[in-house]
Each structure stands twice: as C-alpha cells, then as structure tokens.
Amino acid sequence: MNDFPWLSVLIALPLVGAVLVAVLPREREALVKQVALGASAVTLAVALVMAARFDAGGSRFQFTEKYWWIKEFGVHWALGVDGVALVLIVLSVILVPLVILASWSEDDRSGGVDVPAKRSVKTYMALLLTLEAAMIGVFAATDVFLFYVFFEAMLIPVYFIIGYYGGAQRSYAAVKFLLYSLFGGLLMLVAVIWLYPLSAKSTAEGGLGHGTFMFDELSKMNIDPTTAKWLFLGFFVAFAIKAPMVPVHTWLPDAAQQSPPGALVLIVGVLDKVGTYGMLRFCLELFPGAAKWATPVVLGFAVLSIIYGAVLAIGQVDLKRLIAYTSVSHFGFIVLGIFAMTSQGQSGATLYMVNHGFSTGALFLVVGFMIVRRRSARIGDYGGVQKVAPVLAGTFLVAGLSGLSLPGLSTFVSEFLVIVGTFSRYRWAAVLAVSGVVLAAIYILWMYQRTMGGPKAPAVEGMRDLSAREKWAVAPIIAIIVAMGLFPQPVLHVINPSVKETLVRVDRHDPAPKTTGNVAENGARP
Q1: Tens of pLDDT along 190-225?
Q2: Under 8 Å between Cβ of 424 and 517
Q3: Residues contacting 4, CB < 8 A, separation 6+
C-alpha cells in the first residue's frame, strides 16, 4: 500500500459522491442525503486509515504523489501531507458528514438546518461534497500553482451555498465574499506566476536553474530581499483576507449572518483555516527573510484582531454574527502564534486551528438547531431555553466554554501555548492578547445567559430538545473537544516535527538565537 494514491483518492471520493447526488431525482430527498452521507463517511474512513499510517518520526511529507499536469509551465499534480496538513484534512473530513447528518428534518420539508423549503436539497449536498474535495486538495497540494487552483476552486461552491441557500441579504453577502476573495486571489496569482521565472534563474543568481512550482524546490531559493518582500505581501494579503484578519475581515460577519448554519461549520471551521495554514506553510518557508521583516506589523494586526473581534462580538444581537466576530478574535491568536516564531507558538497555533474548527462547528450546529425551532437567529427571541431543552442548552454551554478556553476543554491548551510562546519573544503582544481571554468570557457567558438562562420566553414554550439524529450530529464534536482538552499530546506529536522544520528554514535567514521552548515539544502540561 506504500504506492497507493491516498490523497488523490481522498479528493476523488467526495467528487464521485457529488456526481452521484447530482444525477438523482430531485424529489428523492432522503436518498440524496443518504448518498451524500455515505460518500462523506467513506471519505472519513479512508482518511482515518491514512492518518493511522502516518509516521510522525518519518520523512516530513508522506503519501506523496507527483505527476506532470502542465509540463510546458512546470506544473505538477503534486500531493503530500506533513503533520500540519494531515490534522487539517482530518478536521475537514470529520465535519462534513456531521454537517450532512444535521441537515435532516423530522417535522417538515425544509431540509433541516440548512435548506429552506422549495430549494434543491440535492444541489446543496453536491456543493458540500465539492467543497470537501477542494478543502482536501488545498491542504494536500505541494505544487504552489496547484495549491492556488484549489484555493480558488473553494470559492465556487461557497458562493452558490451563500447566494442560493442564505437569508434575505444572501446575494449581497455572496458577492462581497467573492469580491474580497478574488481580490486576494489575484494578488496571490501574480506572486505565484512571479516565482516561475525566479526559479528558472541560474543557481548563481539564487534560482534553481529550471522553472518549477514545487514547494520543496522553491523553498531552497535565495530570493532578492526586495523581491521577497513583494512576493510575501502578495501571498500574505490573500491569506489575511481568507483568515480573516482586521481590517480585511468584514466579509465574514455578513457571510455568517446570511449563510445556512451547517455550511458555516465548514466556512469558518475549515475554509478560513486555509489562510492561517498558508501563512505558516508558504509565507514563512518561501519568504523567511520577508516574514521576519513583516513580523512586528503582523503581530500588531493580530493583537488588533483579537481585541476588536472580541469587543464587536459583545455588542451583537444576531447569534451567527456574534460567533463570526469571536472567530475574528480567535484567528488573531492563531496568527500571533504563527509569527511568534517559536515552537510553542506555532504548535499552539496549529492546534488552535483544529480546536477552533471543532468548537465553532459545535456552536454553529446548535445555533442551527435553534433556528430550525424558533425561525430566528436574534438573541432577543430566546430566553430560558435550558428549562425546555436542557440537552440543547448543555451542548451549547460546553461548546461555548470551549470557545472561551476553559481549562479541561480543547481550546485552552492551544491558547495557552500561543500566549506562552509569544511571551518568550514578544512580551508586549502576549500581554495585550490576554485581554482577549477576558473579553471572551464576557461575550460567551452573556450570550448563554441571554439565550439559555433567565425567565422562559413565551416564544420558546414547547421547544423540542435535541432529537436522536441531532445528538449523533453534535456528540462526536463534543467528545473531541473534551478529549483534546484532557489529552492533546497525540495531536501535538503529529504537529511538532513539521513546526520544527518550519522554524529551521526560517532560522537559516536570521543568525540571531531563537527561543523555541520545550512545552510543545515535550507535551502540553499547562
């Protein structure tokens, strides 16, 4: 099985599922959902088998594939995963079947959490599976041009999901999302194309002597510092929009408010991680000197995102916008850890990507269940829900407490590593970032108190508690949140070798000694 094309199969499986769903009759909604769930379940099974075969102590990139795609331009169909890419792929394939499972409805034909009445369920399921294939591809690509193709391909299903299945202002939100993403993608495309002639230069000029887009080869180049800064900016702006960071974050709250909740699990839980993954993978390793040059400014924007996102979250009256602003704050922590340039910070940032995906995924799923029952996302339309739906309220509480990094739940470990790793080199940034922890307690607990606690609102009288299907959809995420909060070492064991390799490549361009720390290397023991 050493030559088995694991990653190509993982990309192909959801695409095959999407095609099967597309050819089914529209009126066969139950069969459509079953086929979609089956395709995503098979993809998950294959991914878990692949993950079990991953050797954390082996070569950096494993399950590699390399075939010519556009030979004249040096473009390959090149795939491979290191520990960072592997955990993000596993995150993706876990969330997709749970989102599909949450999209059933027992009491009407609305399609459950996501699909309004009279809109095509099969198209929605096909778009979800297509998005899954693109997400796997973007994390697995080891050819920079192929990465860009998957990076842009993700926009297509998301645009149609928001634009067709969203709320009253869905067209505005979809177009805004598309324009922001296309602007960033255009800048990155210029930088990607620029890399090809640079690689074709002779080795004496810092090139490779042949044109290529292969990541491993490009990372060996010695690019002129001025050129590297421009290339870094081309990549970084695209990733900052995708993440999103302040001040290029404004597409996210609008998209969140108008998107179907289940799709938001993937948009915020996975798709946005492509931005921070790209910073760690491409900005730091292809342009390490430029990354060091930009670090003070990037850290400043990261701290601004942490505080600004948290403050804006406190003032929201819409549940989906509130959770979107909390994500802006959390992504600030992730970027902070990446550019702290320490092993603790980067291990914590990568772990944060995974933990945020699960905690936010649980929040959006529960909010989706609430919207199905109450037909509203406004916080003021709820109150006293825990008295009529205690399981729903308890699930919401655990997911929320994970979002505020309560010790014993998953996000605490990653946030602790980020702050400690940042403090060892950039004390000012870490001290300011801690204010985001305090603000998180305010916006999470206040949100819970207004929706679940207090007097029972007349509108929630008779609200159903979670059904068996809904429990199956959200229970695995809650279990993962608790398990990773108590025992994160297995995931850190997979992540750490890749983080060390990234730091080694960055350190080659800076003779100053580094503080790498030992917590992430020896296991998180906060």
Answers
A1: 999 999 999 988 787 887 888 899 999 999 888 999
A2: yes
A3: none
